[in-house]
Amino acid sequence: MHLGCAWWFNDTREGVENQLTTYAQQSLLANFVGMLTDSRSFLSYPRHEYFRRVLCDLIGEWVERGQIPEDEEYLGQIVEDICYNNAYEYFGFFE
After folding, report:
1. What pLDDT digit, counting tens, does each position of 59-85 carry?
2. Any idea where the domains of the chain sit in the sequence?
3. Contacts of 14 (CB under 8 A, 6+ apart)
4. Which of 9, 34, 53, 92 sits most deeply, having the most CB atoms within 10 A of its CB?
5. What angle do CA 54, 82, 85 make, to 5 degrees?
């Protein structure tokens, strides 16, 4: 089971931050399957980029406040997992 996200209601910086903070508070952030969109249009790409920027900015704020360790390799892996790997595994896109 996954905590769902309805981006059409949370498609703002604050909405995305609230979603990510909720995941982090429940110790689930590293398992998050990332941004969801129901669009197949070219314009959905900027929404995913926006999500990635908000994610990285929020993690950076947590590092600056000393809430999480400043471990670039570890945090980079979490971002990569959220933005690609977790969804790839969750939806069974195996070779």
Report:
1. 999 999 999 999 999 999 999 999 999
2. 41-95
3. none
4. 34
5. 145
